[in-house]
Design a protein that fits this description.
The complex is a heterodimer of chains A (about 325) and B (about 280). With about 325 residues, chain A is mostly helical. Helix content of chain A is about 70%, strand content about 5%. The chains are: A mainly alpha (about 325), B mainly alpha (about 280).
């Protein structure tokens, strides 16, 4: 059966495309229209508002006629100038990138061995382990982050009391991760912990994907050629899982940069995150141009990791 | 490859600690929903008082009602749009603007929610100034959730479409089915499991979202996550724990039932395939 189908397919010059004409136009057109209307257009509106000036409750017009009736283009860059002048914004962008980078690193350090041991576990056990990693996705992220608020309490929380008994809080204080010994919440520590907790599965899943597909014979070959297990790991396993590392790192890093809920619930006044600043500009200060400018710069910042992610994913697709 | 006992035990310990980390908050939420103390972190005996409080909590009930409506509409819309987008990406290798299309479909997956929320709100406000509609409310939240949900649905459904044996669709075509017939009679039934998975995933995403809903909600549309978030900001509230425990119980039952059904189905498929191999 299969042979006949194969030879027939080979004999056909080119496989016919499914769906021609109207059907095809509909399939591509409907999502395109939707995305253009609700994804592209809003973004251009943000871009436009970011160069407008607040004139009382109204914006100045982007295109207008001056006194002589000449058309002119009134782009104001003072929102962007404010981002550069006020050190709050620059340092917030800096600390957002820093917290996201630290979170990514910690996720990698925890997640790589985790994914590695998962991929090397008994084959019958792997689906169960995989489900164990994905299951927390199905329970509310908001409630799980909220739970850390209780867990980290140093008087009553399960984790907080243990950490204080072990003296970990003094180490964290010495490293500058918490404002005072015995206070774990509302600190860079609790913020990063919350983000690591939330995004760890995003690191583990792509890593597991590449590690479980790896050809184990390569390791055997390396060992036959005299490599120690450690050498084989660093020179074969790690390079082969590069696409998983890049994908996982970007899947953690990008959303962390713009995170709002976790800094709001677990972070403190010292832990500045750009998502929170944008929120405050918009909701508290009502300054739409500045909020828009903050958003535009944020998109520019995550553009580089976004391209990296796309590359690693399309590379993956090409090989599969 | 042979692993030394030390390596094996390191592996087991690492996995155990990792799962402990992932599940500890969930366990804590459930345990402290049964506490008798007004602080959800302290155990002072078993009681169901927070479940009674939950049942009487009008804000939560109203929020849940809104959220379920939005989540169901989001999931349904996302599966339809996600199927179209995934089909376009997987079955039409060449069309004008394909790169832009692929980028736009995938972008909401990683775009920070504050930006999705802000940009949609600014657009809706501009539209509202021109035309007077739409009011901010359930509809506008639905638009925001659909944008994000569609991206997830496209990924889930696209992965299934990629794995699909192309001979099935080709055979139907060779037997004279029109493209629409091939799609509805062959493709759609074969990928139905991924459609269900995408529906459930986008349902939970919508049910969980705070940020987009905060930007797009109006006075009469405080969804459940918005209620929870405003309480979580103020401090700990055992009613929230009780709510969490109820939601977790629902998810747990759901997962158990669906994984049982999938296991049964896979065993059947396996047996059919084996029978087919032996028969042919």
């Amino acid at each position: 059966m299969a042979d006949i189908a194969d030879s027939e397919r080979a004999a056909r010059p080119a496989p016919r495309r499914l769906g021609g004409g109207w059907g095809r136009r509909l399939v591509v057109g409907v999502p395109t229209l939707w995305l253009a209307l609700f994804f592209l257009l809003p973004f251009f509106i943000v871009l436009r508002i970011s160069v407008l000036e607040m004139d009382g409750a109204q914006f100045t017009a982007l295109f207008g006629r001056d006194a002589d009736g000449q058309w002119q283009f009134n782009a104001h860059l003072q929102s962007y100038a404010l981002l550069l002048q006020d050190s709050l914004y620059l340092s917030t962008y800096g600390s957002s990138l820093l917290y996201a980078a630290v979170t990514t690193l910690v996720c990698l350090l925890i997640g790589y061995p985790f994914a590695y041991f998962m991929a090397r576990a008994a084959a019958s056990l792997q689906p169960l382990l995989l489900m164990g990693v994905m299951l927390p996705f199905w329970t509310s992220f908001l409630l799980r982050v909220y739970a850390w608020k209780g867990l980290l309490d140093t008087q009553t929380g399960w984790v907080g009391t243990v950490l204080v008994d072990l003296g970990v809080d003094r180490v964290l204080y010495a490293l500058g991760f918490i404002p005072a010994p015995g206070q774990l919440m509302y600190s860079p520590f609790s913020l990063v912990l919350g983000m690591v907790y939330t995004y760890l599965p995003f690191m583990v899943l792509p890593l597991y994907g590449t590690l479980s597909k790896m050809d184990l014979r390569l390791l055997e070959a390396a060992q036959d050629l005299g490599a120690t297990a450690w050498q084989a790991f660093w020179r074969i396993t790690v390079p082969l899982s590069r696409s998983g590392i890049v994908a996982g790192a970007m899947l953690v890093f990008i959303p962390c940069v713009g995170e709002y809920v976790i800094p709001e619930l677990l972070g403190g006044p010292e832990t500045l995150m750009i998502g929170r600043v944008l929120w405050d500009e918009f909701f508290a200060n009502n300054d739409w141009p500045v909020a828009s400018a903050v958003a535009v710069v944020m998109v520019l910042l995550i553009l580089v990791p976004l391209v990296l992610l796309n590359k690693s994913q399309s590379g993956e697709g090409a090989r599969a | 490859m042979m692993a030394s006992p030390a390596a094996r035990w390191t592996g087991r310990l690492w996995l155990a600690l990792g799962f402990l980390f992932l599940y500890l908050p969930i366990v804590a939420l459930v345990v402290f929903s049964f506490t008798d103390s007004p602080v959800p972190n302290v155990w002072s005996g078993f009681s169901l008082r927070w479940y009674h409080a939950l049942a009487a909590d009008l804000d939560i009930r109203q929020g849940l009602y809104y959220s379920l409506q939005i989540a169901a509409a989001t999931a349904t819309g996302a599966v339809v749009m996600g199927t179209l987008a995934a089909y376009a990406l997987e079955r039409f290798p060449v069309f004008r603007g394909r790169m832009l299309f692929a980028g736009m479909v995938r972008a909401p997956l990683v775009m920070p929610e504050v930006i999705v929320g802000l940009s949609l709100l600014l657009m809706l406000v501009s539209v509202q100034r021109q035309f007077g509609v739409p009011e901010r409310g359930l509809l506008t939240i639905w638009i925001g959730h659909l944008l994000v949900g569609m991206a997830y649905a496209t990924v889930v459904i696209g992965a299934r479409l990629r794995d699909l044996n192309p001979q099935l669709e080709e055979a139907a075509q060779d037997l004279g089915a029109r493209p629409a017939q091939v799609f509805f009679l062959v493709t759609l039934p074969t990928i139905s499991q991924s459609l269900l998975a995408a529906w459930l995933l986008t349902f939970t995403i919508s049910l969980d979202d705070v940020v987009i809903a905060a930007f797009l909600s109006g006075p009469g549309s405080t969804t459940l996550p918005l209620v929870i978030f405003s309480r979580a900001r103020l401090g700990l509230d055992p009613t929230v724990n009780a709510l969490a425990a109820v939601l977790i119980a629902i998810v747990a039952v759901f997962v158990l039932v669906s994984s049982y059904l999938i296991a049964v189905r896979e065993r059947r498929v396996y047996r059919e395939q084996r029978a087919a191999r032996q028969g042919g």
